[in-house]
Amino acid sequence: AAMAAEWTVLVFGDSWAAYQHPCWPAVLGRRLSVGQVHNFAAMGSLCGDLAAQGQRSLMSPQVPKASGGLLKRETLVVIHTGGNDFIMKMVETLMGGGGGLMALLGGGPAAPAGATPDLLRANPGAREGEVLRQFMETMYRGGARHFLVSGVPAYLEMPIWNIIWPMIGSMVNQGLLSDLGIGPGDPPRLAMEVQQAALQERWAALCDSFGKAHEDAEVVLFDEVAALERLRESLGAAAFDRSMWDMSMFHPTAYGHEQLASEAHRCV
């Protein structure tokens, strides 16, 4: 449903929220007919960059505040983070480090070569989830009561995976992913399905516990991977694969973001 013009949407996070064309959080703000959309997200951002983005929003004279200087209740905080922390760092590590690919694709600093990427370790996202929770606490103390949190886009039909499946397969066959219950002969995709589910569970638990701890807050999780799966089903695999991703193989096209905004709209 459309929100009234007194509402403000504040956007935080990474290049799925701020890119060279409008991203779904901003498109969603437009579709909700809110008065203002302010985007504090930045390409290449990691979870750890949320705190500075949040401070900028709370200090910004452009962002509408209530009489005491806190955010107005009619403020929707939209958060999209984790893509660089998990997926891009993994690609960089598996491709041999160096930072070149991350820089090219709008990612953050490179992980050391030879390290096991965080996304391929047991219990992924513990540190990042805590950073996200602290950011939400900061925004809550700043007056925010409405949160839309996107899951991490660990979507396995994204073209970037085609580059790294052989490397993940090699790790599986060397027994390096036994922590995940994955052993030699298992398909590499199975490892990522396990990790994708673990991340989604963690984000869901975080949103649930935050909502319980703050009964006057409304926290909605947007399951972005499930949304992408629905879109591929409804558009057909060939049309989806052709139209959804830009040359980076990791970022949605403008068309892709319009589709994701429609999916996110169903949550709000």
From TrEMBL:
Molecular function GO terms recorded: hydrolase activity, acting on ester bonds
One Pfam family of this chain: Lipase_GDSL
Gene3D superfamilies in the cross-refs: SGNH hydrolase
Family matches, as InterPro entries: GDSL (IPR001087), SGNH_hydro_sf (IPR036514)
Source domain of life: Eukaryota
Protein name: SGNH hydrolase-type esterase domain-containing protein
